[in-house]
Amino acid sequence: MDKISVNEEQIVFGLDIGTRKVVGTVGYREGEQFVVIAQEIREHQTRAMLDGQIHDINRVAATVADIRQSLQDTTGLKLEKVCIAAAGRVLKTMNVHVDMELDRERNVTRDDMGTLISMGVDNALVEFQEKNDTDMHFYCVGHSVVKYYINGLWMSEPEHHKAKTLGADLIATFLPDDVVDGLHSAVELAGLKVESLTLEPIAAIRVAIPEKFRLLNIAMVDVGAGTSDISVTDDGSIIAFGMLPCAGDSLTELIAKTCLIDFTSAEKIKLAASEQTEIIYEDIMGMEQIITAEEVLAMCQPEIEHMAKLTASTIQELNGGNAPSAVFIVGGGGKIKGFDERLAQELGLDLSRVAIRGEEIMSNIKFPEGALKDSTIITPIGICLTQYERNNNFIHITFNGKKIKLYDNNKLTVMDAAVQADFPREGLFPRRGERLHYTVNGKKRVTKGDYGESAHVYLNGESVDLSHSIRSNDIISVEASTVGQDAHEKIAELVDCNGKITVIVNGEEMYLPKPVRVNGKVVTGEYMIQNGDQVEVFFAYPIAQFCEYMGVSTEDMSIYINGGEARLDTVIYNADKIEIKSKKAPVAEERKEEKVTDTVNEPVKNEEREETTSETVNPSDRVTEEVVKEEPKAEEKDETIEQEPQEEKPQEENSQEEIKEAASIALNEENNTETAQALDNEEKKEEPKEKEQVRPEFMDNAETEVSADGSRKIIVIINQEPVVMKGKKNYTFVDIFDYINFDTSKMQGSGIVTMVNGKDAQYTQELYNGDKVEIYWKKG
C-alpha cells in the first residue's frame, strides 16, 4: 500500500480477542474521524476461548502473532504495542462518589479532572477489595464518569469553570485477575506489549451510542460468541455496565448437539441459516444431512427466548427496574433472526425501539476499500479509540523478582508497587526501637526509641525513594528498613532538670543542679533511666544534701542561710545567701606537728555579680517535713548570669609567681632532705590513723559553671575553709597559692605537707569541685 503520511506515534493498533474470532485494526484519529489503515480477522481453529476467557493461551497467541505479521506486511509498520479489551462472565461494578478540594477557587483544568478520576478509581478499588468476600483477586479494568459536580452542583463539562470543589459520580468495573493475566500472556507471547486495557462494553458504546445520544435512556447489548455485554446511558452519561455468560455460542452448542456435528460445523449452519433456505452438512456418522433455515430457527428458539429473557431482566436491573427508551444490538451473536423481536417483547417495547446497529452508526469511521463494516467491527474500533484516553491501563513491573500487574492511574510510584506486591508496610519505613516508660513526679512519661535506616530502594539498578514514579516493565528491588536503638535517656536530658538553683556561697554566685531521686535514691545527671523508674525532681536542697554536694560537714562547719544559722531540717531555695564558716581552730591540738595558722583569704581575683533579688527567708521558718518537688514547666530555660569585669587584684607583699616558685623549691627541698623524711616516717608511726577522706560519689560528675570563654568555677575546702576558684579551665594544686596567704619566702618547718582528700598530693595534681585540701609546715 502507499506510504502512510502520518506520525507513527499517532497510529494505534487494537485487538478484539473474542471467543470465536480475533480482529486486528490499525488506524489513527484525524479530527473527529478515525481512519482505519488496515484490518485483519482470524477465527480460532479450536475452542481456545470460552465465555470470553482464554483457555489455551498458546493457540490464542499464535492467532495474534499471525494477525500482527499480516498487518505489518500490509502497512510496513513495526507493531510492538497493542490496545486490548477484556470480557468475562464474572464482571463486578462499583459506584462511588469522590470530591476534591482545589487549592483555591479557580478555573478547573483537564489535569484536575484526571486527578479526580484517578482518586475515584482508587477509592472504588479500596471499597471493592473490602467487600470482596471471595478467594478471587480482581482488577479494575475500566471506568466511566456518570456525572461531574462543581461546588456540589451538577455540571456536564466542568473544564474552564471556576470552582473550589470538584466532584464526580463514577462507575468502576472489575474482572478476576486470571482473565486479565490470560490476555496479557497471549499478547506477550505474540511479541507485543499491552499499551492500554479497557472493558468490551466500554469500547463498544463509544461507537454504538455517540455522546450526542447519551442524553436518552438507551441500552446497548453487544452479543458476542461467549458473552453479552450491556451498557446503559441516561442524562448524558453511561450509568451502568453488565455482562451475561450467554451469547451466540450457546446457540451453536445447541445445533451441534441436535445435529451430531462438531462445533465448527454447527457454527457454519447457524450463520448459513440467515442467508440460505437449506443447508447441507455431514454428521459424525459420515452421513450427509439436509436442514432448512426454518428448522434451524425452530431448534434455536428456546435458547433465543432464554437469552432474550435474561438480557431483558439484566437491562431492567441496571436501569433501576425500568425498561429503557430504546435498545441497540451490536455484535455477531445479535444477528440471529428473532432475537430482537423477542427482546422487545420481554421489555414491553415497540419493535421499532429495538434495532441491530451496523454501518449506519459508523459515519465517523473511514474504512479502506473492501473492509468489513457491519456490527461485528464496532467493538474493535472502540478499542482503538480508547487508547486516546489513557486512564484505564495496566502495567507490568518486576518487584523483588516477582512479576506483578498494576492499574495505571498515571501517578504510580514505588510505594504502590510495594503495596500491590504485599511487601510488609513496616519494612518500607524506618522503625523505632523499644520505648522507655517511666514517671516524673508521678506523671507518666514515654521516650521513643531511635529510628533505624529507611528501606533501600533501587529502580532499574539506580537508588530512588518510595515516591519515585514507575513505568511499565520497570525492575524494582527493595531492601527492608531496619529497627533503631531502644530509647535511652539520662536524667540530665529531662526537660524537668533544665535550669539551676542559684545560691550565693560566701559571696560567690553558685549554680546547683536540681536534686533528683530515682526509686528513692539520690542520682546524678549521668544516671540512665530504666523502664519503670520513678523519678523525682526537686527545686530545693535539704541542708544535709547541700553539705554532701559541697563536701562539707556540719560537725566541722557552721552554715548560715540569709543571716540565720541553719538547722538539720532547713531547706535551701533559689537565691538564698549562704555562709560557711569553720568551727575548728586553725591548728589541731592533737597533731604533733604544728600547722601554720594561715588564714584563707578571699580569692585574689574577685568577680562582681548581678544581685539576685529575692525575699529573705528566716531559717527558723524554713523547716519542712518534705522537700517540695519540681512542677514540670512547659518552657523552662537555664538561668544565665552575666559576669561583670573583674576587679584588679590587690597588691600582695610577695607576688603570686614568687610564692609559687618558693613553694616549688620548698617541695623539692623536702624530697631531698633525709631528716625531714625520717621525721615524717616517725610521725606517721606515732600519729593515730585518720579516717580517709572520700569525696561524695556524685561529685565526680558534678556540674561546674562554665563561662563563655570555657573557664570553670569550682569550690574547694582549704584548711577547713571553702574557697571559690575561677578564671581557668582546669586547676592544679599550686593554684591554691593564688587564694591563700601562705608564706614560702622562708623555711618555717622541715617541709610542707600537701594533701588532697586525705592523701599525699603533688603541686601538679589536678583539683576538682569539692576537693578537701590541707597545706601546712611540718614541725622540724
Helix and strand arrangement:
Blueprint: E1 12-17, E2 21-30, E3 33-43, E4 49-50, E5 53-54, H1 57-75, E6 81-86, E7 92-107, H2 110-131, E8 138-150, E9 153-155, E10 162-176, H3 177-189, E11 193-199, H4 200-208, E12 218-223, E13 228-234, E14 237-244, H5 248-259, H6 263-272, E15 278-282, E16 288-292, H7 293-318, E17 326-330, H8 339-347, E18 354-356, E19 365-366, H9 378-386, E20 393-399, E21 402-408, H10 414-420, E22 436-440, E23 443-447, E24 456-459, E25 462-464, E26 475-479, E27 501-505, E28 508-512, E29 516-518, E30 521-522, E31 534-537, E32 541-542, H11 543-550, E33 557-561, E34 564-565, E35 571-572, E36 577-582, H12 656-671, H13 674-686, E37 705-706, E38 712-718, E39 721-728, E40 731-732, E41 751-756, E42 759-760, E43 766-767, E44 772-778
Parallel strand pairs: 1-6, 3-19, 6-11, 12-17, 17-18, 20-26, 22-31, 27-36, 38-44
Antiparallel strand pairs: 1-2, 2-3, 4-5, 7-10, 8-9, 8-10, 12-13, 13-14, 15-16, 20-21, 22-23, 24-25, 24-26, 27-28, 29-30, 29-31, 32-35, 33-34, 33-36, 37-38, 38-39, 40-43, 41-42, 41-44
Protein described:
There is one protein chain. This protein is of the alpha+beta class. It has 13 helices and 44 strands. It has a six-stranded mixed sheet, sandwiched between helices. β38 and β39 form a beta hairpin. The longest helix is centred in the middle third of the chain and has 26 residues. About 15% of the residues have low confidence.
